[in-house]
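Both lines are given unchanged directly below:

***
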Amino acid sequence: MKKLEEKTINTEKIYNGKVVKLQVDEVTLPNGKTSAREIIKHPGAVAIIPITKDNKIVFVEQYRKPLEKTLVEIPAGKLEAGEKPEVTAVRELEEETGYTTSNLTYVTSFYTSPGFADELMYIYMTDQLEALQENVTGDDDEFVELLELTLDEAKIYVKDQRIHDAKTNYAIMYLETLEMMK
């Protein structure tokens, strides 16, 4: 592994935003030459696969400005400083869906875009949802609509590219695998 390692010579901080930080690292390559690496620093994120009592998956539909369109996704959100992923999962579930749970199962974690970002996404699942008595206020600039779909309906959304992001596609493949193992 060491033979592929790039050594950082210098870091130039470009932008420090609400969600991400951008920096440019000057690195020494394994062959001794130098290059620049544009890097997005991200605090990490959590997604949750919520399953209702009647075996439907709870999704949120929201507008994604970078894509200039809406996507249907599993609930997800950014880790807050010092927050454990399980806490983020429940918080996002409550804010985005109006459900809560006291029973989470860790599924996996993965880097979303390792070529330019350090974001680590954690995925949890629950099939023990409880409706909240009062809605929890989420982010002021976040607007979502809820959908509850069967796994077969979700697969149609994938085919139609209404579901078109990595975390949600992963969730659907994971649930499909669980179905096959029954």
